[in-house]
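Let's sit down with a protein and look at its sequence and fold side by side. Once you have written the record down, we can walk along the chain together.
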Amino acid sequence: MMRSLYTKWVLAVAMLAGTLSTGRAADLEKFLPKETDVVISVNVRQLLDSALVKKNALDLIKTALATNKEAQQAIEALGLDPLTDFNRISIAMGLEDVSNPKAVVLIDGKFDVKKIDGVMDMLIKKEPKQFALDKVGGKTVYKITTPDQPTPMYAAALDASTMVFVTSKDMMTGAFEAAAGNGKTVAKKEVLDLWSKMDSKSSLAIVAQTKGRLDAIPLPDPAMKKIIEQVVSITAELKVEKDVNVELSIGTATADEAKQMRELVAGGLELAKVQVKVAVAQQAEMKPLVDLVNTMTAVQKDKSVVITGKVSGEALEKALNMK
């Protein structure tokens, strides 16, 4: 269910992102709904412009797009170049009901407005049960309905650079107010505090306020369940430049809990080092995974455990070039 839901989101974003134009990036904090537990932001422009991707992955991406018939049809219809027209994609999501999450997607980029309008008109006429026009606060929005989705989704261009994609009309109202400068920051303080520590230059940034949100995870081991329940937050940053750097932080309620968590993580890393060596013996292209695991360290910082690791661009390049 969840996998299908997110697949639909990706497809809808790809179709509707074309209503954006060049401009400033959205002030993300103002667009986070009060239900937000998780924020994920992908710096598409930085990722594609990084030395590592330019040298080793850009040609592969271009080839994949060129050989995918459906992708080419969508690109031509929308007047969209995925390699130049996306700047950043951010997702804010609530976890209270994971089967029907409340979420907001913000997309920054530049697109051909006339072409996307034409495509949407065609889709509305061709698939009226799935695509339709609606109104929120007197403004026109796109409504998207799919059979395997419990509630419809809505999308609209907020200004010359920002597209919003939401799961409720209330969220759309809040997004319109934020775009007009009339909105208030309503997200939880815990989420905002976590987000304020993220580096805007990271290729990928994730923050999650998990207190009380992981209790429903079915774990047969009572000891493991108790440990998981101690986690109150998780943040992660991925930086792709010449090399790939990863930092993961696990927050707990007390320093004593963080100490226990660090010991658990450290033990897990030692076990992982053994396991990946076995995996590489069978599959040599996984060598960068060994490099990553071997560089990973877990350090306690007050109430948090910070895990860092690095994969060199040279190691990744060798793996990509293996026949």
In short: Residues 2-35+59-179 form one domain.
